[in-house]
Amino acid sequence: MATESLSAPDLLNAYTGQVRVRVCGLLVHHDTLLLTAHRGLLPGEAPFWSPPGGGWQFGETIQECLRREFREETGLDVTVGRFLHLHEYKADDLQAIELFFEVTPDDPAAVPRLGSDPEHAAGEQLLTQVAFVAPRELVVLPAAQVHPMLRQIISPDDVFIPQIRFQR
After folding, report:
1. Are residues 153 and 135 in contact, defined by beta-carbon separation less than 8 angstroms?
2. Engineering a disulfide at 73: which of 21, 43, 107, 115 sits with its beta carbon 3.0 to 4.6 angstroms away?
3. Torsional class of 90: left (φ above 0), alpha (ψ -120 to 50), beta (otherwise)
4. Top CATH class, 19-158
5. 56: which DSSP letter?
């Protein structure tokens, strides 16, 4: 029996029509940031690069959520550090508040691997890649392919400058 992959707009149905609280981790390693690429957020096959993270579930602390999301998406166990950024996102059908925290790997020698989203079936995964990306690699991408919190960074140290970004 063949499995069909859902189209990009269908992949986002689980997130539409509600306000989500997302928790994301910023992991800096050798002047790079650990990022995940997602499909289905932009037209065509263009990836959208953002820090690992996801939806806060009832019954979890924020730190538990971030550790769970990091493990699911990258295979890494992390320690959650200081709060760094708040980002408001609002589009026609999607709305979220995103909280960004500094994270450090529990095992500095551990290598990230592409994980998955348990809320999506195998053919419906949004994650396509996990990689350490230098800021100079992000600035050459179209802005739409880079999370707004990362668009202005020049150095990985810039992620440690607290920001609050509201959708305009």
Report:
1. yes
2. 115
3. beta
4. alpha beta
5. P
Render pLDDT for 99-146 as a digit per residue (tens, 0 to 9): 999 999 999 999 999 998 887 777 778 899 999 999 999 999 999 999
- Closest listed residue to residue 57, CA positions, set 37, 72, 36, 42: 72
Three-state DSSP at 71 gives helix
Would the CA dihedral through 61, 152, 156, 130 be positive or negative?
positive
For 107, other C-beta atoms within 10 Å of its C-beta total 9
Residue 121 DSSP SS3: coil
What strand order describes the sheet that includes 53-55? 53-55, 19-26, 95-105, 78-90, 163-165
Contact 12, 93 (CB under 8 A): yes
Q: Which residue has the tokens 């538990």?
A: 64
- In the chain, the amino acid numbered 138 is L
Backbone angles phi, psi at 114, to 5 degrees: -65, 120
| Residues sharing a CB contact under 8 Å with residue 33, sequence separation 6 or more, in sequence order | 26, 27, 51, 132, 133, 134, 135, 150, 156, 159
Chain centre to alpha carbon of residue 97 = 13
Cα 74 from Cα 99, distance rounded (Å): 18
Q: What is the pTM of this model?
A: 0.86
Q: Where are the domains of the chain?
A: 19-158
